[in-house]
Fold:
Amino acid sequence: MTQAAKKPSSASEAVVESVRERRRARTRDDIEATALGLFLERGYGATTIEDIAEAALISPRTFFRYFASKEDLLLARGRDKMALAARSLGERPPHEPVMDSLRGMLGVFAALHSTDRDRELAWMRLVTTTPRLAAGFLEMVHGMELVLRDFMALRLGVEAGHRRPRLVSAAVGTAFRVAAEMWHDSDGAEEMTVLVRENVETLVAPLLETWTGPARTSC
Amino acid sequence: MTQAAKKPSSASEAVVESVRERRRARTRDDIEATALGLFLERGYGATTIEDIAEAALISPRTFFRYFASKEDLLLARGRDKMALAARSLGERPPHEPVMDSLRGMLGVFAALHSTDRDRELAWMRLVTTTPRLAAGFLEMVHGMELVLRDFMALRLGVEAGHRRPRLVSAAVGTAFRVAAEMWHDSDGAEEMTVLVRENVETLVAPLLETWTGPARTSC
DNA sequence: TGGCTTTTTGGCAGCTTGTGTCATAGTGAC
DNA sequence: GTCACTATGACACAAGCTGCCAAAAAGCCA
Structure:
């Protein structure tokens, strides 16, 4: 169920999705877009699953076959993007300076970012202004931090439970989160990617400098 | 409803709560303790409001007169503690070095901290292992950051929307959060307060040093 | 003590989210 | 065209949560 198409029937060898999978993805996108429209129109809380199902021409039961919850509908995409960006660190050359790897990750994230700025802004507004979603957003960033932590442990040469990978990965997540807040509050005036990069430079770079070089002390 | 006792009937002038208020507080504590016991025994998800109500000798309807939700039951106390600690910054001398104010805040927080270590550990385990609660915990810290942000804006002499108060307050919150994770993962072996202090020194101090002194540049 | 006012509580009815189950319709593979 | 698998819809149902109203309890005043 979770696995991708394992046997490409055509000659092409790229990610060939079966017809079913593509159809499923299209339905999923359709539900998502429909729901987002309703949310922006009436608000998150005032829109029921039944409303969404009706507007998307599916049954309420079917909704839950595409999304684990109403919350998931809005957060899944962001979660995937973040996880993908974080995991891309694994393909970085092992001896590259950590800051360079992070900059590379930002590039991956930027490439994944939707070009529809207004839509992203609306999404961000919805997510940050609805308490339950805001909590979910923070958890989403936290999930990315967990992936980052293992990477940092590897690069810093200590176990993941140590303070350094914990603090560094949390700092990166914080840089992301604060950038998102700034981007939203400025109505998208500044480029999100730039904001993230600046925050990482400010918050993470000094932290790494003290550790990647001479440090080999306690904790 | 939300206001405290305004007319103390006795001569004492401290925070005199009416009999009703004290009774209410006692019932609230009672429900909380009962529920925590059930959660630890059967798990958060496997314990229903009805179970809690029955064990606490109240009706399910009454439960919601004491707590906004099942989640709130576990998070309200922590939220209050953090808000109290953060707000205590307002009573600090205005020209005190920011790091000293933060250390003072940690003292307030430590004083509020329960002496029952096992109970706090169990609470932390419950909250961090239950996804929905974990998200709520993160939001709780985020709430503290919002209070911190205004304070930082004041001290740094810029508006709250600027990058510096944002990053510094978020860094403090992150220091808190990571300390909580470390404390939990180490089974409370290290003192929570110490962990927070060390994280603040590592993450926040360098950030402040670059800004409180010479800095008066752009952002 | 007795009566009045306010708060607290319980019960009920109802909405919403989310899940298990089963039958049915659609689709792809051969 | 048949067979197997998947997607869907239609229940039924548990649990969280809210509004509403009536009853009980608690404080208050004479």
Notes: Residues 1-14, 214-219 of chain A have pLDDT under 50 and may be disordered. Chain A touches chain B at residues 131, 134-136, 138-139, 142, 161, 163, 166-167, 170-171, 173-174, 177-178, 181-182, 185, 198-199, 202-203, 206-207, 210, 219 (CB under 8 Å). Residues 20, 23-24, 58-62, 65 of chain A lie near DNA strand D (CB under 10 Å from a C1'). Residues 19-66 of chain A form a domain with the Arc Repressor Mutant, subunit A fold (CATH 1.10.10.60).
